[in-house]
Amino acid sequence: LNLWYLGDDGLAELGQALRTGCYRIGVPEESALLVVAWLLEHEHHAAALDLVAELRPLMHRLRFTPMLSAVPSGAVVRRNAVGEVRAQLRQATVPPRIAAMRETLQVWNPLYDRLVALWCDTVDGDLPYLDDGVVHGGWPCRVWPDDWAERRRQWMDDYKTAAELNRARHPKSNFARLQTLLEQCPDDSSALSGREVGWIRRALANTISAHGAPGSETRTVLRTTQSEVVARPTYATLAHVLSARLDGFPREGGLPDLEPVAGPVDSTEAPAAAGAAMPDHLLAKAARALEAPIGELVERGVIGSGEVLAEVLPQVTAQLLAANIADPALASVYAQTYAAFRRRRSLLLLNLEHQVRFEELPWIDAVAPYRDRSEQATRAAVQTLRETTTVALGAFPQTILPNPLVREFSALTAQAGRKLPLVEEVAADIFMGTFTQKWREAAVVAGRVLAGTLYAQYYDLPDVWQPVEPPRKRLRIRWGKPVAEDFAQECGRRAVEAQTPGSGGYVAQNGTVLEQSQILTTHNLAVLIDALGLEDWLRGAGRDLADRAFGWAIRRQTQAPSYQGLKNTAYAWRQAIFYLSFCDGTAQREVLAKLEERAAVLGPRFAPAVTGLVEVAGGQRFDATGRTPGGGRRLLGWSAGPHWCLAEAQPPLVV
After folding, report:
1. 393, 414, 529, 629: least surrounded by Cβ within 10 Å?
2. Do residues 267 and 110 lie in contact, with contact meaning Cβ atoms separated by under 8 Å?
3. What is the pTM of this model?
């Protein structure tokens, strides 16, 4: 179609056709085409033509966004859509070992009992049994009941049917010997040698001594217990029942409540499993589709990490960003596009480059003139940022904020009309040796907020950062961006402490510098606490957060020693010290006393870290090598060379 030859009416019709077609066929570029449709329907013809002209050269090779999906409304989120959870449940199968056990209990044990009973009926006198490894009792193949041949024939028919299951058996097992000899003995012992009759006697003695004779109380109790076990429905069966229950909900939507799918199994759903309760672990899978506030999903364990929190938060952010668009149709497209954009894969780029940002998408940029700043949406963004920050720190106090979550926080701050220097975690293997200005700005905030605190003393934060001179417009530019040279130099100077003699590649060298950048900026903690006014909240929750973070660090060190584990321990250690810095002296002493008690199980390997923290809290300071007079050491995660905490690593401990 040549848009230039269509009049206003034709353009409006084209807009309607595009909208209808996109929803019908679900083309990958549907969000872009829906924006074109909206522009045409609202007579923004020039903007529509410009957007089409910009996208046209790219449509044959780029997929602009994933398929759009519904975004929950209100302040609720979900981890997965119902269709995704349903598909996962339907893939549930019985593990091979469980299937083999059930086959044994259902098929082979009853066959074996009948086989033993057949041979026992041929014993003259007492049934064989073992006494100190010696067989006592009567001999088989001496008595032949009238119905024995018919029972043998029935057993052989049942065995042939069961043998189609291809269950392998050891040829010298009791079952295999009794079954083989039964095939050779049609109605009497004429076909069996004396040695073979002795094998039958020995096999009967083995099984009778172990499990009791057929019909005995011991064997009856055993088989009754086994029958009860095999009568229980498998988790795969219950998963399929739960999946069928989810069929009643929209595929792309979520669950408003778990109660409709959590009840016992009905006889119409699975007769063999009627009355069985739905296991908690299957309900936990269904809860991934539950639509609820973020705090509730954290309590349920559906959101179990900062990374998962970052996955669901765009559902809220999308609505807040779209709230500035008056037209409901365009707002819906905008929200769905944002949620889809956040599901894209991230890349690691060099030279301070970044991936395409959401607002840089051509069809999103075309919508920018039609977005107004709503005061209500601004307040909602601030409130969401506050609530999400407290949830992230309260639920996962031991981990730093992951990059996807930092990006969502940046989007919320932009919606709130604020500019916060939120920094990302930089990969050590792509670090280019410098930082942009926001790292320095974050360090300035951290220095101001933490002045005189335990954190500032432990990590020797600079007392003050000098004003940037010369003016910003004269700042050094690298790869088209102004960089903070003094901040990079300070990180490099401080990193010398962790650069011990010995082997250490460039990645480890970069890691020691990057760790100092996180220490100086507190990796967003000080910026968020200060900007959102969360000091009072942290004073109340700091003791618990510090205690949990320290506890996690100690538990991590009871596992197999590794550099990755040590790095995560140092992160948790730093977070805990930050929280503890907002507590009073009494709370600090109590938390540190508990830390010393917990760390005692680690022995001398970790003792210097605890000693160093306790001494700094008591007024001591680390020297240039990170040591205190009492033998304490500053705990850092990165080391260019052997790390003192791993030098005498012990096997994993059990606490």
Report:
1. 629
2. no
3. 0.77
